[in-house]
Amino acid sequence: MRMLKEIAAGAALAVGLVLGPAAPAAAQTARATRADTLSLSAAGAQAYAKLHDAVTFESARIGFAALESENAKAFRALLAERSAAAAFARLAAEGKPAGRLYGLAGLYLADRDAYTAAAAGFRRDGTQVHTINGCVMWPRSVREVAAFIASGQIPRELQ
Questions:
Q1: Taking the model in full, what pTM does it have?
Q2: Which of 103, 83, 93 lies closest to 154 in space, CA to CA?
Q3: Is it the case that residue 29 has pLDDT exceeding 80?
Q4: To the nearest whole number, what is the mean pLDDT of the chain?
Q5: Interval 78-133: pLDDT, tens
Q6: Is 55 exposed, middle or buried (0-12, 13-18, 19+ CB in 10 A)?
Q7: Over residues 31-59, mean pLDDT
Q8: In angstroms, rounded to a whole number, what is the distance separating the alpha carbons of residues 64 and 60?
């Protein structure tokens, strides 16, 4: 019996090692395909992927040293794209919670009508998202961050 358990555990490990990396690679390929349909430059596609998968919603400067946030750099790179409005609209719809918020902030700057249409759904979303504002990190609901975005302060700061 013990040998069967060890064989089963070994088989499960082997399957995980073989299939494990394929799942993230497949997700990355799907994201790249969606980004390709937006006609983004290579830098724009990279920025889109970074924001799509962001786990924290960060202000432009973070930490005690007030270093520029990598997410803010990606936000500005995407904002500079010719198809920024479409990219931010897709982020607002398809990203992880922090990525969706970057999408909403981008729409605030790139397409105010699309922002207005998208913002309603965010106002009801109680999903928790990690935020970093300067050197302070805390969880907030998507609706709370969306209210800050609506004030215009966050989009202007990220710009």
A1: 0.79
A2: 103
A3: no
A4: 84
A5: 999 999 999 999 999 999 999 999 999 999 999 999 999 999 999 999 999 999 99
A6: exposed
A7: 87
A8: 13
DSSP string, 30-96: HHHHHHHTTT--HHHHHHHHHHHT-SEEEEEEETTTTEEPHHHHHHHHHHTSTTHHHHHHHHHHHS-
Q: Give the pLDDT band (50/70/90) at residue 137.
A: very high
| Torsion sign over Cα 10, 12, 13, 19 | positive
For residue 26, is pLDDT > 90? Answer: no
Q: Which two tokens stand for residue 87?
A: 């990219």
CB-based contact 125:141 (threshold 8 Å) = yes
Contacts of residues 142-145 at CB distance under 8 Å and 24 or more positions apart, as own/partner, are 142/97, 142/100, 142/101, 145/57, 145/101
Contact (Cβ atoms closer than 8 angstroms) between residue 98 and residue 53: no
Question: Whose structure tokens read 């494990």?
Answer: 20
**Encoding tokens for residue 53?**
């998968």
CA dihedral 19, 23, 25, 30 (to 10 degrees): 140
Q: How many CB atoms lie within 10 A of CB 58?
A: 23
